Known about the structure:
One of its GO terms (cellular component) is cytoplasm. Pfam families: HEAT_MROH2B_C. There is one protein chain. By secondary structure, the chain is mainly alpha-helical. Helices cover 76% and strands 0% of the residues. It contains nine helices and no strands. It has helices at 2-5, 8-23, 28-41, 48-52, 55-61, 67-84, 90-103, 109-125, 131-151. The radius of gyration is 16 Å and the shape is globular. The model is unreliable at 1-8 (pLDDT under 50).
Amino acid sequence: QVLDCLDMSDWGGSILQSLSRHLRSECPEMRRLALRGLLVLRQDPVMADGVQSLTESLLELLWDADGELVWMALSVFINEVQDRGIPISTPTALDLAEALQTLFGYDNIHVQLLSIHLFRRVLKLVVEEGKQPLQTHVIQSLLPLFFLSHDE
Length: 152
């Protein structure tokens, strides 16, 4: 609620620095609060570029054992790629594809669906010259996706 009231042109940089620190915290509740803050901040156009700078920290959260943290990190990623439609660099796309592939079989159905949705968006937005290296990840992902869709 506080984030909705702040003028992000004045406070945005320091808020992102604080959230970045808390995303790497050992305390799951601090990471959860930071992700909630990012979900609110991403709605502000002034903050959109800043949220994109946290990609590495968000990628690390996709490997977390806490399903809620993974779901929230996926939500931040989806909001970034869906709303902005900015091409994704090849190294980021490869890291993201690798992390998302492991989430296809996650215990939580919401995490599964979000990871599949994000994977499809990443494939559409990857920079043209980066499509070839992603082919391996796509091929490896087809069989688990087939089994998952067959089970559903």
